Amino acid sequence: MIINFFLILLLTFFSIITDLFIFCNISGVYKGITNKIVIWIIGFITILLAIFSPTRLFMNFGVTILEIVMLSLYSVYIKKKNIKLISGSCLIFGITDLSILTLEAFFKTLIPIGKSNIINYIFDLIINIIIIFITKKYNIKIKNRLLDKNSSILVGVLVYIYITGYVVNYLVFSENEPSKVLQFSLGLLLFQAIFAILLYVGAVRIQKEVLTEQQQKRMEAENQQLKEYSNYLDKNEDELRHFKHDYENLLNSLKISAEKGDSKSVVKQLAKYTNSQFDEKALRKYKGVNHIHVEELKSIAITKLAKLYNEKIPYSFGCEVEIYDIPKIVNIFDLVRIIGVAFDNTIEESQNLIKRTGDNNSAKVDAMYYQEDGNFEFKIRNRISKGTTLSPNVLSQEGYSTKQHHTGIGLANVKRIESKYEEFMLINYEIKNGWFTFELEIIPDNESMEED
Would you list the DSSP string of 54-118? Predict the structure, then answer.
């Protein structure tokens, strides 16, 4: 009897720790001293509720629901975390608890244990340990799923599975003869879970097919920019070769003038010839892009620099170091989306500034890629109207925009992507001295670097 009591106590403690581990690893709430203290307090309250539960049903179901409520209230209403991320994290550990209860009941019907439940407790501990390892390995992928475009569908599926599992388990533990209920309900639960997962996969696939045409058009546009860049390099290589040949002939023809001491005439002719042969702006159009060896980063840079050039917006771009890869912890397409939004914002603001002032030189865009010690950095800034003092937090709010008839979702989308990589991605905005500056830094995952 005493052994069973301590085993129940140990299993209860370990089960709640598993719940908190799943929640914290997926949601990312467990950061900072305040968050850690609150999480441990919630865990302690949950353990007390489980130990002093008036009934077995309340311990199995009521305690988990109260745990979900406490974590959700703190994370969403106090810490202002993404509601779908928090809901999904809570539902995942709730479904995990229900799954363990279902397996435990099924296990009992196969192997009658009698009064001793030691084997059952060991089984539960092993399952919890396996779940911890799985969560640790796939937490980032799960988090990404809860933050992508299909997150609402996924949360809906999780709610559906949780409610179905809750009903099944409640019937199993409340009936006098749970084995008959279990045989029917377990099959129903599996069928419902498979159906919900297939529904989610089907919805995601349909959405991907809808986006295929748009992606194809975007790829064609990017390929056109890459083709233009290639032609640009070939053209300038030919022009430089011809210039070298012509310059040698020119120097020979001017040699006589130089020997006669007419140096002013020589300098004037050289300057005139040089200006006629080179378009300084065209030569700087893709300056630095040749150092970028990550195709996605190069493509977005070429596309946006071409747009700046065509819009006649003064700009500069720098990439002084060779960039062959980025930290693998970040999805390259998420990074490209952020860079694209940053460029689009600067281009649109520059266009508006030129319209207001009537002077192309009133606008200016400076951008750069940089990499050192595995870090990747992107920085872009643009001139803005004098006196602009908007808070960066206001700029990144959903729906806010300084432009008329604009939804203002650009920086809000950037913030949403950033929340997927809280430990590895740093983004800062700053408005100062007539410039808006956007800075992004990706810090490599040390574990990934060691594996490489």
Answer: SSHHIIIIIHHHHHHHHHHIIIIIIS---HHHHHHHHHHHHHHHHHHHHHHHHHHHHS--TT--H
